[in-house]
Design a protein that fits this description.
Layout (H helix, E strand, L loop, with lengths): L4 E4 L5 H9 L4 E5 L10 H11 L4 E6 L4 H11 L3 E4 L5 H11 L3 E7 L2 H5 L10 E6 L27 E4 L8 H8 L3 E4 L4 E3 L2 E2 L1 H12 L2
Parallel strand pairs: 1-2, 1-8, 2-3, 3-4, 4-5, 5-6, 6-7
Antiparallel strand pairs: 9-10
Helix pairs in contact: 1-7, 2-3
Length: about 210
């Protein structure tokens, strides 16, 4: 089985960016959602992006964002992909992919098999679906350290690329990959010492665990 690609989401400092690069992650996530403890401003994102340059992929995370915010973020951070983490429809995903000319990832909250089936609707509209844990009503849409039944997506053979998120950390990511065959894994709170505070040692341990599978 090929080694899963790694995304470290919620990067907000140069130190955590460098830790992700040293650990050979494929992507970082920059959060453009003000309610998140990991949120970055366009100015912060631009500084991090300049430092990242061609060393690592830059994915911007948005929650039902308007075109003005998306355009500002894409321009400032030179994003390589958009990750939509709200209630964006396939039509919205397709519109944004056409407008900005970069890949669109759609995060889907999973609690049941029906939630997984929803991914099929994004074929041709998004480039990748990210299966994440469903969070409680009123809570943040991600980054809560919650997981779901990985058996629901075990060796998923859908019409587009996919990744696994939700409660992944250095201790469980290897098992998650073995159970699901996920080609990409995404972590945020699982490599933190406190909400929004990345732990460089945990980033290294997470990436090492992925490559050990």
């Amino acid at each position: 089985m090929p080694t899963a690609a790694i995304k470290i989401c919620g990067i907000s400092t140069a130190a955590s960016l460098e830790a992700a690069i040293r650990a050979r992650a494929a992507h970082i996530g920059l959060v453009f959602f003000a309610k998140s403890p990991r949120a970055v401003s366009p100015v912060q994102a631009a500084q991090l992006s300049e430092r990242a340059a061609d060393r690592i992929g830059r994915v911007g995370l948005f929650v039902d964002a308007n075109d003005a915010l998306l355009g500002e973020a894409v321009g400032a951070a030179k994003l390589d992909a958009l990750q939509l983490h709200g209630s964006e429809t396939p039509e919205r995903a397709a519109q944004l992919r056409a407008r900005f000319g970069i890949p669109v990832w759609k995060a889907l909250s999973v609690a049941t098999a029906d939630d997984v089936t929803r991914a099929n609707a994004y074929a041709g509209a998004a480039d990748l679906v990210l299966f994440d844990a469903k969070t409680p009503r009123g809570a943040l849409p991600g980054g809560m350290g919650l997981s779901f039944d990985w058996g629901l997506v075990a060796n998923w053979k859908g019409p587009l690329a996919w990744g696994l998120a939700g409660g992944l950390d250095p201790a469980n990511v290897a098992e998650a990959i073995r159970l699901t065959g996920a080609p990409l894994v995404d972590t945020s709170s699982g490599v933190e010492s406190a909400p929004g505070v990345k732990d460089n040692a945990r980033i290294a341990a997470f990436c090492a665990a992925v490559r050990a599978v």
